[in-house]
């Protein structure tokens, strides 16, 4: 399985060792005729990136298990540019879930065009609210990290890399749709587990990207949640269903 190799070597530049997070100039060396040798990290004396020969499914499983090595491989040693599309799709999933719950609470089954238009508008409104809440969550994280460790976010590229990591690590929200489609008595519990999983993934993404201990990422997420819930309270005071 060398399907990830073209992505990993798509551009020249510094890579990262997935074990110690030190910079590396190359991931492997090609000796022609199909002979490849994975580079060894000069710092920890381990392979710079063992995942370049792994099947993408195995990498995904390791990412789901929140292994730091898998996160470093994805964030630093591959050229994945789906974070924007993934972010929008996750917001659509969350908006659909809220919209569905809003329809369940409504007893009006009139098929009139005006009613259908109102229901469509409700979906767009849920999407806008979900976007604002997610934005406030991310802003809370960035403010906390910038306040506590300003040296970590000195340049625009540092902000972009962390934003990309946070958006990619929110992939767990895609599980919202199956949880709703296969509705069960335990659906609320499943949704709570999905929320916790996304937060754990966000924490691991911050930790890996900025090379921090476990405490600071969780503090940033905590303040992000405070700001997000502040936005929710604002909408509730406006008497908007969220």
From TrEMBL:
Compartment list: Endoplasmic reticulum membrane
GO cellular component, one term: endoplasmic reticulum membrane
Topological category with respect to the lipid bilayer: Multi-pass membrane protein
Keyword Lipid metabolism: yes
Coiled-coil features, chain-numbered ranges: none
InterPro entries xrefs: Arv1
Membrane-spanning segments: 126-147, 159-182, 216-235
Keywords for the protein's UniProt record, in alphabetical order: Endoplasmic reticulum, Lipid metabolism, Lipid transport, Membrane, Transmembrane, Transmembrane helix, Transport
GO BP term, example: regulation of plasma membrane sterol distribution
Top-level lineage group: Eukaryota
Family per similarity comment: Belongs to the ARV1 family.
PANTHER family given in the database record: ARV1 (PTHR14467), PROTEIN ARV1 (PTHR14467:SF0)
UniProt function note: Mediator of sterol homeostasis involved in sterol uptake, trafficking and distribution into membranes.
Protein name: Protein ARV
Species assigned in the record: Tricholaema leucomelas
Chain's gene name: Arv1
């Amino acid at each position: 399985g060398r399907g990830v190799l073209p992505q990993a070597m798509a551009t020249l530049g510094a890579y990262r060792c997935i074990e110690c997070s030190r910079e590396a100039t190359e991931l492997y060396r090609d000796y022609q005729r199909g002979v490849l040798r994975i580079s060894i990290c000069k710092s920890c004396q381990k392979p710079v990136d063992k995942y370049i020969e792994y099947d993408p499914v195995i990498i995904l499983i390791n990412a789901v298990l929140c292994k730091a090595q898998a996160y470093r491989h994805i964030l630093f040693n591959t050229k994945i540019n789906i974070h924007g599309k993934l972010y929008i799709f996750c917001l659509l999933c969350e908006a659909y879930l809220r919209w569905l719950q809003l329809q369940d609470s409504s007893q009006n089954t009139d098929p009139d065009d005006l009613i259908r238009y109102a229901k469509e508008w409700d979906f767009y409104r849920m999407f806008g609210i979900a976007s604002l809440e997610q934005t406030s969550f991310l802003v809370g994280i960035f403010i906390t990290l910038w306040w506590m460790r300003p040296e970590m976010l000195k340049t625009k590229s540092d902000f972009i890399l962390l934003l990309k990591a946070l958006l990619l690590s929110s992939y767990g929200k895609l599980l919202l749709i199956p949880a709703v489609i296969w509705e069960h008595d335990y659906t609320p519990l499943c949704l709570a587990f999905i929320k916790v999983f996304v937060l754990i993934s966000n924490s691991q993404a911050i930790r890996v990207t900025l090379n921090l201990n476990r405490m600071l990422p969780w503090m940033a997420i905590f303040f992000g949640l405070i700001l997000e819930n502040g936005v929710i309270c604002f909408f509730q005071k406006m008497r908007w269903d969220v």
